[in-house]
Amino acid sequence: MAEPKVKYDRQLRIWGEQGQAALEKASICLLNCGPTGSETLKNLVLGGIGSITVIDGSKVVLGDLGNNFMLDESCVGESKAKSVCAFLQELNDAVKAKFIEEYPVALIETNPSFFSQFTLVVATQLVEESMVKLDRICREANVMLIFARSYGLTGLVRISVKEHTVIESKPDHFLDDLRLNNPWPELRKYGFWSFGLLLFGLLNLFSETIDINERDPVAHKHTPYVVILLKVAEEWAKSHQGGLPSTREEKREFKELLKSKMIAIDEDNYKEAVEASFKVFSPRGITLFWNLIRLAMGHVFQITASVPPGLDGNGFGVAYLLRVGTGQDLQQIIDDSHGEVSSNSSNFWVMVAALKDFIVNEGGGEAPLEGSIPDMTSSTEHYVNLQKIYQAKAEADFLSIEQRVRNILKKLGREPESISKATIKIFCRNARKLKVCRYRLIEDEFSNPSITELQKYLTDEDYSVAVGFYILLRAVDRFAANYNSFPGEFEGPMDEDISRLKTTAVGVLSDLGCNGSTVTEDLINEMCRFGAAELHAVAAFIGGIASQEVIKLITKQFVPMSGTFIFNGIDHKSQLLLL
């Protein structure tokens, strides 16, 4: 058997050894092992999940061979859970696999405590009534839950977790933490200039030895842009009563001053300084990054957060997620009521409490420094020295927060060393990128969605098909409860089923407060034509999405999606509905 580091080499580069260790400790329960469930577990087994338990009470029939690649002719008549489990075990013998031949709906009804033993439950192909019951069970047991369903050419994935905290959110784009507008004391040795009550200085290791007026072309073009910006900012401040550029015209003049320092047109370091100049005159503090984004992009981004009924006292919606890495994320998190920690608080909120205290005190309104610097045009010597300065500051900030964490744990009557040094260091490095996700109960969404959002989706051409499928997926469950079969499930004329499904869909919309709204005839016809079939191509796609979200939840890396994910296989589109 291959060594784990070799076996999982590619994924270790994405979520690291800590993420892989979390996966290998996780216990996953799958409800229904049709193609959607089987494809979900296949991805997790190949990724090295710790253990799986497959729950399905059905037998393999000939029709299953057409859409489930984990079954063959020898499985016909056998337990589906047993057959799928055996196949999955072959994919990775390091995974512990077992099966229970029982129908999930019966298990939900008769043995709700069964689910408390798992890290996460993946529930596939459940109807609305069972979804609501299972959601309540998993919430009470503090077990993560993901619903996945494929139905003809559509499907959905929905996460349900009371609270999910993310330290390593790993955003695709995030501004570097260089503190060009707020150098710490070690950077103030050479000269100073004021902006309000704040003193700004130059890099003590560089400023006394680097002259940006140096005429040597090699030295001039290898001065790091960090030093260039601080030097030019000092020069500007001296001629502007200690102030920084504030108006559009002054900012333009500042850039021109930077350009005037160039002695050749090929000096990339000065071009970098011009592009990064907005970082110098942006306001300081943890709201800094929102302002930087505005300055960099030239306009204000709107943070769109659905605010449906059922918000908690902190104003969180379907999922409290800020979609751009900004200081506003962090401000909301440190202001959250969970930051008032108790003996039952999670490690995350204990560290947030320490972070808040740090920001208020020696942080001077700033989060701990990350300690990394981006690539830039510079000599090797200058770059390494600059890197050391940032790393030293980051280490000092980490030690300060670590001490606070230990003190808080001690006050709470918990073991001071119960949060590892490595965990605190990762927290400090990612402090600006923390995320908190909270999801509504399925029952709340089903019975009391955001009417404003729902009506917006129904009238928005881009979302009308996705929300139509969402309504119809609920309508087919109600149809099945009333008529003991799904629309179009059996051969024969579909006119009656189409009429019944249309009436049922109108009823669903009416119950949701959307009187007079309808779903298009074409979509209703398509849903009947699907006949509740699980097509392998759609199941594989939905299973891929579901397994991706499982990995996010277990590793606590990357931000899980909010709302209900709807796949539209007709138009090849995927959309999230925040209801």
- What gyration radius follows from the Cα positions, in whole Å? 28 Å
Indicate the structural class.
alpha/beta
- Percent range for β-strand residues: 5-15%
Name the poorly predicted regions.
Answer: 189-208, 288-326
Arrangement of strands in the largest sheet: 3-2-1-4-5-6-11-12
* Shape call: elongated
Number of helical segments with 4 or more residues: 21
Q: What is the terminal separation in angstroms?
A: 47 Å
What is the helix content? 40-55%
Largest sheet: 8 strands, mixed
**Averaging pLDDT over every residue, what do you get?**
86
Number of strands: 12
Summed up, what is this model?
45% of the residues lie in helices and 11% in strands. With 579 residues, the protein is an alpha/beta fold.
Please give a structural write-up.
The protein has 579 residues and is of the alpha/beta class. It is 45% helix and 11% strand. It is built from 21 helices and twelve strands. It has helices at residues 4-7, 9-25, 35-46, 80-91, 104-110, 128-141, 217-220, 225-238, 248-260, 268-275, 288-297, 327-334, 347-360, 380-411, 421-429, 442-447, 451-459, 464-483, 495-511, 521-530, 536-555, and strands at 27-31, 51-55, 96-100, 120-124, 144-151, 154-160, 164-166, 190-195, 198-202, 435-437, 564-568, 573-577. The strands form three sheets. It has an eight-stranded mixed sheet with strand order 3-2-1-4-5-6-11-12, with helices on both faces. Strands 7-10 form a two-stranded antiparallel ribbon. It has a two-stranded antiparallel ribbon with strand order 8-9. Strand 2 (51-55), helix 4 (80-91) and strand 3 (96-100) form a beta-alpha-beta unit. Helix 14 packs across helix 15 (421-429) and helix 19 (495-511) packs across helix 20. The longest helix has 32 residues, at 380-411. It is elongated and about 85 Å long. Residues 189-208 and 288-326 have low confidence and may be disordered. Keywords: Ubl conjugation pathway. Pathway: Protein modification; protein neddylation. It comes from Xanthoceras sorbifolium. This is NEDD8-activating enzyme E1 regulatory subunit. Residues 8-557 form the THIF-type NAD/FAD binding fold domain.
